[in-house]
Amino acid sequence: MKTTLLFIFIFLSAIANSQEKPVIVEEINGRDLVRQNDKYGLMKKSKYIIPAYFDTVYYIDNDYFMVHQNGKMGVFDTKGKMVVPVAYQNIIPVNTEDEIFEVFAP
User: Fold this and answer.
1) Which residue of 9, 36, 73, 103 is surrounded by the most CB atoms within 10 Å?
2) Long-range contacts of range 28-37, CB-CB < 8 Å, 24 or more positions apart?
3) What's the N-to-C CA distance of the chain in angstroms?
4) In angstroms, rounded to a whole number, what is the distance separating the alpha carbons of residues 53 and 79?
5) Closest alpha carbon to 66 in 47, 48, 45, 88
6) For position 66, what pLDDT does the model report?
7) What is the mean pLDDT of residues 8-24?
8) 94, pLDDT greater than 80
9) Which pLDDT tens digit goes with each residue over 41-76?
10) What pLDDT is attached to residue 31?
């Protein structure tokens, strides 16, 4: 039992240490676009707004960000709220002030 717990502790420690630190790629409207382990996210004051989980993250307008992950797209606002789930083949911003986006199914 102790050997198993020790192995799990060492394994989890190795995984935690293998994470590279976030690197700021660009500043966008007071937020930092960061890359970590070849994935992108968004931070403000060293706290993640959008986790570094996505293949790409880019600013669209009126403080919304488009994300891509495994060929699917989604939209987040600047507070990290997912406005459109990451499940669509294509998304077109129609009226971002009213959070209206045209989505195309997978």
Assistant:
1) 73
2) 28/59, 29/59, 29/63, 29/78, 31/78, 33/57
3) 47
4) 16
5) 88
6) 96
7) 63
8) yes
9) 999 999 999 999 999 999 998 789 999 999 999 999
10) 92
Residue type at position 52: A
46-55's contacts with Cβ under 8 Å and 24+ in sequence apart are 48/80, 49/76, 49/78, 49/79, 49/80, 50/76, 50/80, 52/22, 54/86
Ramachandran angles phi, psi of 63, nearest 5°: 65, 40
Residue type, 25: V
Average pLDDT for 87-91:
95
- The pTM of this model reads 0.76
Distance CA 68, CA 91 (A): 10
Q: How far is Cα 57 from Cα 60, in angstroms, rounded to an integer?
A: 10
- CA 49 vs CA 13, 23, 33, 60, 64: distances in Å: 25, 15, 10, 16, 12
**Taking a C-beta distance cutoff of 8 angstroms, is the pair 49, 63 a contact?**
no
Higher pLDDT, 5 or 78: 78
